[in-house]
Amino acid sequence: MEYIKNLVFGMLIGIANAIPGVSGGTMAVILNIYDKIMYSISLKNIKENLKFLVPLALGAGLGVFALSNVIVGAMKTHPVILNFCFIGLVLGSIPALYKRAKGDKINHRNWIFFALALGLMIFLTVINPETTANKSIEQFGGVSAAFCIWLAFTAFVGMIAMILPGLSGSLILLLFGTYAAVMESIATFNFLLIAAISFGLLAGGVVGVKVIKKMLRFHPQALYFGILGLMAGSMIIIWPGFAVGTEGIIAIVGLIGFTLAAFLLSSKK
Predict the structure, then answer these.
(1) Residue 189 CA: distances (Å) to CA of 27, 136, 141
(2) pTM value?
(3) Could you tell me which residue, 266 or 170, shows the higher pLDDT?
(4) Of 58, 105, 120, 161, which is least packed with CB atoms within 10 Å of its CB?
(5) What is the C-alpha separation between 149 and 153, in angstroms, rounded?
(6) Count of alpha carbons within 13 Å of 98, Cβ hemisphere only?
(7) What is the count of structural domains for the chain?
(8) What values do phi and psi take at 142, rounded to 5?
(9) Residue 237: enclosing H or E segment and its boundaries?
């Protein structure tokens, strides 16, 4: 029964991580297994916790795969509606993350990290929109060694983001423009690309725990303000344009609905 429970928990975390703006870390907190995950995936403790981690990882993979086909299809048929829903998820996640960043008192110097992160996203978007465009595998030029390395790197950074409650790994993939390609790789069982992504996730998990623990211990507010800047900038990247009509109305409804859903979910302890 313990194996099945961890498998189901993993699926819930995987589904959360597959949706930009929804945090797998927050889902782990809600399921009351966040501290156990953080303890288990350190190099010192991973071997003795494989019975917990294996079904959790398997469930997370199944959760991502279950959602990948839906997302890939929606990207092709209703990109405006989907992106408005993504913007809603980001908007709804910001208040809880700001509350966590704020703490008891704001060190106003940390707004510099917010401004730098936001400025970086605006700079990349204005100077070269294609850098952060959410492109398919074909639009990236197909499978190549360089593309595999890029996917592994973005997965590495995304995994570090997943470790933080309140931040979505998929949002990081959107920031790097690889979200659609990752979802397509999973949906089509592209073994080579999945291997590159898995390597990045594994490396990010091992390195991320150490980095995040140190950042949260010594510079937590600076870290979260930087993340807030990235999230604010991501909405500029995700913005798909808008036109009045049936699709526009549905997009607005999706924006409102997903904003509320993300707010309620990310506000839970």
Answers:
(1) 26, 15, 18
(2) 0.63
(3) 170
(4) 105
(5) 6
(6) 12
(7) 1
(8) 85, -175
(9) helix 220-238
Band (70; pLDDT cuts 50, 70, 90)? confident
* Most confident by average pLDDT, 81-85, 149-153, 170-174, 219-223: 149-153
How far apart CA 195 and CA 215 sit, in angstroms, is 29
Instruction: Give the SS3 label for residue 136.
Output: coil
Q: Give the residue among 20, 22, 12 at the shortest CA–CA distance from 261.
A: 22
Domain enclosing residue 222, as ranges: 2-267
Q: What is the pLDDT of residue 149?
A: 92
Percentage of the chain beyond pLDDT 70 is 87
Identify the H or E element spanning 54: helix 50-77
d(C-alpha 17, C-alpha 215), whole Å: 22
Query: Six-digit token pair at 195?
Result: 């291997």
Q: What is the DSSP string of 141-178?
A: TSS-HHHHHHHHHHHHHHHHHHHSTT--HHHHHHHHT-
Cβ-count burial 90-104 (b if 16+ within 10 Å, e if not): bbbbbebbbebbeee
